[in-house]
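Person: Please comment on this record:
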Amino acid sequence: MSTQHPDQVSFLNGRTRLYGIVGDPIEQVRSPEMITWELQQRGCNAVLVPLHVRESEFDTVMPALQRLANLDGLVFTIPFKARAFGMASHLGPQAQQVGAVNALKRLRAGDWVGEIFDGAGCVEAFRRRGLPLAGQRVMLIGLGGAGSAIAAAVAGQQPARLRLHDLDAARCERVAAIARRASPATQVEIGPPVVDGIDVLMNASPVGMLGDARLPIAVDALPASLIVFDAIVKPEVTPLLALAQRSGCRIVQGREMMRGQIARMVDFFLEEG
């Protein structure tokens, strides 16, 4: 037990600036510790805290939350990245392209600017692992806010083939159009999840999060040559990644994507505006 007196705590005081991550559920997130650590490393008197906002109460809670005078920014996770898009007065280039945001910051004038970093974080995670996406055949499952951003960023890496799947047919068509604009030479197609003829399998759906034992693809085993990525951060080893490990595949975890976007997200929060 620490013997430090409460008034000696140095990381939190009345001048601390607040950032929050908004989701429903919220217990799976890693942003509070990771972004707070990055802010503290940069000498900022700031913390990021989890904010559990019920999906049914989002439109009521968020306008009031934005009026907090010491709140400088927000991060959004499932299921709010598309809905948060409408909270921004100004949009960064990725958010404009994808139609979703996972970060909002308050400008000096009081307006809010939004951007999305999931795609950049995913590509950075693969880069750090020395796993190129150029020329690969990619299967991406889930095209919500994170999945749409991942699709655009992966397409920008010039894969040979990008196959997209989501339960929302209109969303599939919209994201396919984004991917084709990002890489005209890539074969972009829409269809059910497959692993035959695929080099990289990506899950950006919430299937497998927390206590969900389901798989996002109906298979009993995976080709050992496959690289498998899951955007979910908790559990760190999702049912899909556990199957991939049993099958001898290389895996990339959601926390690696999160690490890939942390520095860029904090840069965004701290830029003068």
Observations:
- The chain has two domains: 6-117+258-270, 119-255.
- The longest helix spans residues 254-270.
- The chain has a mean pLDDT of 95.
